[in-house]
Amino acid sequence: MQTSEKNHGSLRAIDRRELLGGALIAGGALAASTLVSPLARAFPAPLEDRKTKRIVVIAFAGGVRTRETFGSADNVPNLKKLAARGVLYPKMRSSNLGHYGAALSMFTGIAEQRGIRENQRGDSPTLFEYLRKDLNFPGSDVWIATSGGAQQTNYSYGLHAQYGARYGANTLDSDGLFNAEFRSLVAQWGRPKPKSAREDELLARLRGALESPRLPDAQVKLNSPESAARVEKYILEELTRGTAEISGPNAADAKALRVARNLLAVFKPRVVGVVLQQADVAHASFNGYAEIVRRNDESIGELVAAIDADPELARSTAIFIAPEFGRDRDLNSRRGLDHGDGSDDLNFVTGLAVGPDFRRGVVVDDEVAVIDVCPTVCSIFGTDAKLARGRKLPKLFA
Amino acid sequence: MVLQGDQEGVSRSLSPSELRTLYLDLLRRPAFDGERKSILDNIQRATDGDPGPASLITGPTDQAGLTKALVASRDFWQQWFQEQLYYFLLVDNFAPHGETMVSIPDELSAGKLDVRDAIHRIALSSSFDQRNPGADTFVTVVMEQLGGLAVEKNRRELEIGKAVYDGKPGSFLGRQGSSQSDIVRNAIEQRSFAEAFLSREYRRYVHAVPDKRALGQWVSSFVADPKCFAELAGSWCASPAYEARFTKREPMDNRLFVRSMMVDLCQREPTPEEFSRLRSALDGLSDPQPLRSVMARMLLDSGQTNVPASKDGLDAAGFVEDQFRHLLGRDPSDKEAVEFAAGLADSDGKPTMIVYALITSPEYQSY
């Protein structure tokens, strides 16, 4: 549902004081176009005229309150610079469905309760499935980089009969794969010897000769053989880059953002999702949580800088960032922050959208929702998230 | 070759492929060469009807006997424990290392501990606490994963549980409590725990949904004496439902793939470090197939496997037949035998290529 442009009361240009002026000046982003023009379009430009060709969706997950992001003076200078280049949604409703269920809802557009430790896929299609099925994106065009281990590969696709694995995103849990331990195992066993074209041909012949009986019905391939070969090559190359060496309290999140950066450089994919997780240290330590927020902001800044430095990516990439939910209003007995008090700090987060087709430097005060990200992303590419319950984010397009 | 068995008075047989399946389900690895040879020799002697001296039959020769022997082994309990840890996502940084935790498989195997107490101990460990920090998360996970309860339908219980977690007295799941450990105890003593646990374990071993009436009976037995679990698991794997399981193949999860690959190629289990690194890397991918292929290539090219590096002096047909039996649990078809032997004889053909083609096949990666 597109919000009418008549509702100007909820749209305002970002105030310099609000975003700590320095950030805006550093971003150099506030030009005349940032003022809310009555001529601004209510609807996006026709598909063929849109500049957005690829989208990065960052779930700034693990439970992050607005107080520690846009409500804080120093924690997120990079997000503030980005906000100055895009649209800020400070009243984004979220649902405390557990980290897994809540982050999944950003990709499915449906808020469904999932078990916190439930290592099962959701029932609904993800935005990756809508895009791959409707627009024929190949597997190597749709990625998601995560930091939270096995459970997070379930963001790739759901169990809906009309969608599923064959339309899923390639998921890389960065910390599970790109770590010093796995790299040392690769060193111990040695890298695989390169195969000649003749050997590849022979191997294909052997595989073609197999007359395997009774294979499981469910073994549907996410990647075509060509796509799988590219993924295989990428993994081997990524192991030699610096990702495995990243350390520090937000190492897993930073690796996910680094992998996203490298994926953009290597594959120039249409969609990259990133799911962060480490802010959840907040349960035991408020200070540790604030530090993760600061460091993740820094890593997001590096990702954005890499996009800006590549002319093709800079002119064609949109970015969406939002936490899956916030955290409690008050500290717990361990001087940490849980998530379960039902407060506005928990239920509302601040989201942000930046892109070549979007407005610049405005704040939309309408109540929106985390589940709006999925239908919005799909609509930008010209398809519909048919089963999503979210709406398209209002007042987004320039 | 068949393994004679007798179930409900009906004579039945077990093929080498089914023997492989049974091992993979119960010990989460294929049989080592020595084990397989010993079992199949025993079966051969028994089926020939001329076993010779009784001492030559050194182990069970039917499915029920073999299942019972496997369930009684320490390996079975070690894998049961590992699967529970994985269910609770107590892996990698959250893997428990304390003595009271690592001794659980030994205690289960010796009959000093039952599975309910083992899970109780897991849920009281510092690893579980660290994995599920804070009242909301901890109580939610206990209700969902131990109690088998849907939190969204039991919001009031969640709120009471959170208060109990914080030390306030309250009636959580029908019993008084005032601490974190009371939360766990009250959940584990629920009938719904037994139902969720047995249902989950049945699906894991038999790959099917349990019959409701049968499940109700198992739950009653389990609530009365949790030590019956070993007997239950054994009976499941010698039941008509398990016979049906033999007729369909199940995809291998990453843990099973890693263990199978290492046993099949190196005749040893992976070290805990190897297992953890390989499993974690594979679990990080929504499509692990490309990385499984990379791992198989790395291992085969490392020279650390039992696969001959050279085909010199190798009987091509015999090698191909051995590899099909070893890795797929079946003989090659005529066409496969011809094509694979020709592939090995090709100037670019190598024994490792034959093995690589088989181990990266969908057939190997299902069972």
Molecular structure report:
With 398 residues, chain A is of the alpha/beta class. Chain A has 13 helices and 10 strands. Chain B is mostly helical and 367 residues long. Chain B has 21 helices and 4 strands. A two-stranded antiparallel ribbon of chain B has the order 1-2. Mean pLDDT of chain B is 90; it is low at 1-11. The interface between A and B is large, with 74 and 70 residues.
Helix percent band of chain B:
55-70%
User: Gap between N and C termini of chain A, in Å?
Assistant: 17 Å
Order of helices and strands of chain A: EHEHEHHEEHHHHHEHHEHEEEH
- Sheet with the most strands of chain B? 2 strands, antiparallel
Number of strands of chain A: 10
Main β-sheet description of chain A: 10 strands, mixed
Low-confidence stretches of chain B: 1-11
In quaternary terms, these chains amount to heterodimer
**First-last Cα distance of chain B:** 19 Å
Helix/sheet category of chain B: mainly alpha
> What's the average pLDDT of chain A?
86
Residue-averaged pLDDT of chain B, rounded? 90
Total helical segments of chain A: 13
Helical segment tally of chain B?
21
Strand content of chain A: 5-15%
Give the number of DSSP strands of chain B: 4
Outline type of chain A: globular
Helix content of chain A: 25-40%
Radius of gyration of chain A: 21 Å
What gyration radius of chain B follows from the Cα positions, in whole Å?
Answer: 23 Å
Write the layout of secondary structure elements.
The complex is a heterodimer of chains A (398) and B (367).
Chain A: E1 11-13, H1 22-27, E2 54-59, H2 77-84, E3 87-93, H3 98-108, H4 127-135, E4 142-146, E5 170-173, H5 174-177, H6 180-189, H7 197-209, H8 225-238, H9 251-267, E6 271-275, H10 286-309, H11 311-316, E7 317-322, H12 344-347, E8 348-354, E9 362-364, E10 368-369, H13 373-380
Parallel strand pairs in A: 2-6, 2-7, 3-9, 3-10, 4-5, 4-6
Antiparallel strand pairs in A: 1-9, 3-8, 7-8
Chain B: E1 5-7, E2 10-12, H1 16-26, H2 33-48, H3 63-71, H4 74-87, H5 99-102, H6 104-109, H7 115-123, H8 126-131, H9 135-146, H10 155-165, E3 170-172, E4 175-177, H11 180-188, H12 191-206, H13 212-224, H14 229-236, H15 240-246, H16 254-266, H17 272-283, H18 289-301, H19 316-328, H20 334-345, H21 351-359
Antiparallel strand pairs in B: 1-2, 3-4
